[in-house]
Amino acid sequence: MIERQELKPAFDLSRLTTGKQLVWINPEAGRTETEEEQAQAVKLTMVDVDDAEARLQRFAPFIKRCFPETDAADGMIESALVPVPKMQGRINEKYGAKLSGRLYLKLDSHLPIAGSIKARGGIYEVLKHTEDLALEHGLITLKDSYEVLADDQNRKFFSRYTIQVGSTGNLGLSIGIMSAAVGYQVIVHMSADAREWKKELLRSHGVTVIEYESDYSGAVKSGRKLSEQDPYSYFVDDENSENLFLGYAVAAKRLKTQLAAQEIIVDGEHPLFVYIPCGVGGAPGGVAFGLKRVFGDSVHCFFVEPVEAPCMLAGMASGLHNDISVRDIGLSGITHADGLAVGRPSGFVGKMMEPLLGGIFTVSDANLYEYLRDLLDTEEVFLEPSACAAFAGPVMLNRYKETKEYLRLHCLEDKMARAVHIAWATGGNLVPEPVRQEYRNTFL
Predict the structure, then answer these.
(1) Which residues of 199-215 are buried (b: 16+ CB within 10 A; e: fewer)?
(2) Rg of the chain over CA atoms, in angstroms?
(3) pLDDT, tens digit (0-9, with 9 covering 90-100), for 171-206
(4) CB count, 10 Å around CB of 5?
(5) CB 393 within 8 A of CB 419
(6) CB neighbours of residue 60 within 10 Å
(7) Measuring CA to CA, how many Å separate 162 from each of 175, 208, 228?
(8) Three-point CA angle 325, 275, 262, nearest 5°
(9) pTM over 0.85
(10) Please, how many CA atoms are within 13 Å of residue 214, restricted to the half-sphere of its CB?
(11) Of 244, 240, 228, 118, the residue nearest 177 (C-alpha)
């Protein structure tokens, strides 16, 4: 545990305006949460995560029936954890990363149904709302097989209701695809940076897509307002949703099982480093919350954001959270990492991360494409550019004096040879081949 007097001065936000890659180390990282924080900022506990996991298990028969690709996993939506030693060799050789220990890739990019990390939180929230309605109206009991919810008469019931969400792309896909499977009417409010192929995929599932010239926050605001006008409409709020958050947090329990299956030890002598791309913050925040609850001080979580849209960094470093936008400090918020093109962070997540998050790296769009090609070349794995942000952490961990100081303060310097690093791949499996070719041939 680090001492409060060792913490560094406040971060100068003007550093973000240079457009250069950098790291911010959370000065609150490693301190013990106060009782007030546990009661107010961290209202959720592992009891809530366990409840979310149990709900997903109840829905497994329904998921298996509606999505045959989950048959082998018996209706579980989960991704593989794979070692990527060739990629580790590449980043050490090409970028001078000097990364010791072992590098793994968490393939949420290949999650069934939605092909991104949003398949966790987005699908969970749709199913939570579905269970609430089904129980309230007597469609099922907790003892029934939820497979019956896929029957025509139940789908007709759900068609009376609408689900709406604002999205840059991947959350919209997860909400849209699962909501359509249940039978809901679905409206996805897409920001200007959303990719055209994602809009077309949604439309192919019968989803109504409303396009905006504004950014993510504008699409969310408009979607929320429209939903409030309809008593039969439910709005999935990526900025403030505890249900989304819990869906993501379940990943930590699943990861613990996967690590044990591969005989990977995580404890005080074998630290775990996890690097997660960050947009508004819901997905990485939920995963980080779960990981800290499962592994405690043995896990060190870092977010990665684009240099033009480091909204979570700006919010946490300033203490203003969702009361600051990247545009307030002169940044455009425009990035090739469409899933991370968010100008204003979730205050709910930022406040929760204050004692939990190790820090935040920023990454250039040019490097996203470099990492994309590196991973394809070394491991034959394709990720979309925003997911490749995860590699900025392993590449830059040993590059900055701030991260070296973090390792020193947390007594990690002599443990790095035994460390495990996980780059959390957040999306890419559903990207059409022509778009993949476009990404492969993009040089900035």
Answers:
(1) bebbeeeebebeebeeb
(2) 21
(3) 999 999 999 999 999 999 988 778 899 999 999 999
(4) 5
(5) no
(6) 18
(7) 11, 11, 11
(8) 155
(9) yes
(10) 14
(11) 118
Please, are residues 125 and 52 in contact by the beta-carbon 8 Å criterion? no
End-to-end CA, the chain: 42
DSSP label at residue 27? T
HSE-CB for 115 with a 13 A CA cutoff: 17
Q: CA distances (Å), 41 to each of 7, 45, 149, 294, 351, in order?
A: 21, 11, 36, 18, 6
pLDDT in tens, 15-63: 999 989 999 999 988 766 555 555 544 578 899 999 999 999 999 999 9
Q: How would you classify the pairing of strands 102-107 and 81-83?
A: antiparallel
Helix, coil or strand: residue 102: strand
Place of tokens 């007030």: 36
Q: How far apart are CA 14 and CA 92, in angstroms?
A: 30
Helix (H, G, I), strand (E, B) or coil at 105: strand
